[in-house]
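=== RUN LOG ===
request id: a7f3
mode: sequence -> structure
chains: 1
length: 167
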Amino acid sequence: MFKRSNQTRAPILAGMAIAAVAAFAAMTAAVPATAASAATVPTRVYASDAGWHSPSVKPTVFYFGQGGSPYITNLQWQWWYKTAYATGRVWTVIPGCAPLYQCKYYPHWISMRLSTIRMHGSVRYFSVMTVKFWHNGAWHWQTAYFRTFCSTCTMPFWIGPASWPSL
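=== RESULT ===
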């Protein structure tokens, strides 16, 4: 029977160790990188009247419809996580002004809170917006919801009080 000495085993063990490391490196290099988890992708908000199109993160403006509709500008976001909070300006016309294309818009300072995260496909989005504003000597809170208007409708939009935000 042939016995190997410790001197002949060392190079064989070293060679086996190098081969094992090389094989492991080759296997891990072939594994594709995984996508970021949903928790690392920021929640979005639909800040226009375009339904499910163009969700954004920390938009500076919100549009709610065509001529005569209120809109929000100058948004400065203090936080954006499970809820979001910003301050800015809401621009509205005087209720009853007609024709709308001749009506002047007036600004009011507001604070805005976004909450209630929902999913549309793979997009996490805020579906509730509450605005706080000062008007006629008092603070007002109004809430709007991003949803469809009816059970058979497919295009959502922000739905709130009849003339949201009504001033």
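=== NOTES ===
Residues 41-159 form one domain.
Confidence is low (pLDDT under 50) at residues 12-36.
=== END ===
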